[in-house]
Design a protein that fits this description.
5 helices
Length: 102
């Protein structure tokens, strides 16, 4: 029984308390449902580069998202402008992905 519980818990995605990480996870799930999956070892930037030949507009939007994500994660002082830019980049990715066919 404990092995089954471990397998079920292990397969569940980790839920973060960080609202920005949750937004990113929701976007990645949405893209996956659209048939565009990120490999587990890929960063957002690597994912965008891989998508560039097939989905150039989405790739550019993901690259912008990666840039803002880097600022939020690694900047010593993050301003509200960075968070607004992150939300705008997420929305732009959804807008670009809306037109993908499954």
């Amino acid at each position: 029984m404990s092995v089954l519980s471990w397998i079920l818990l292990r397969s569940r995605p980790i839920r973060s308390d960080d609202p920005y990480l949750r937004s990113l996870q929701r976007l990645l799930r949405y893209l996956s449902r659209k048939g565009v999956e990120r490999n587990p070892e890929e960063t957002i930037r690597q994912f965008a580069l891989r998508l560039l030949p097939a989905y150039p507009e989405l790739a550019v939007s993901l690259q912008n998202l990666a840039d803002v994500d880097d600022l939020i994660r690694y900047a010593e002082d993050t301003s509200p402008v960075h968070y607004q830019a992150f939300n705008k980049a997420i929305k732009e990715c959804y807008r670009r992905a809306k037109h993908l066919s499954v």
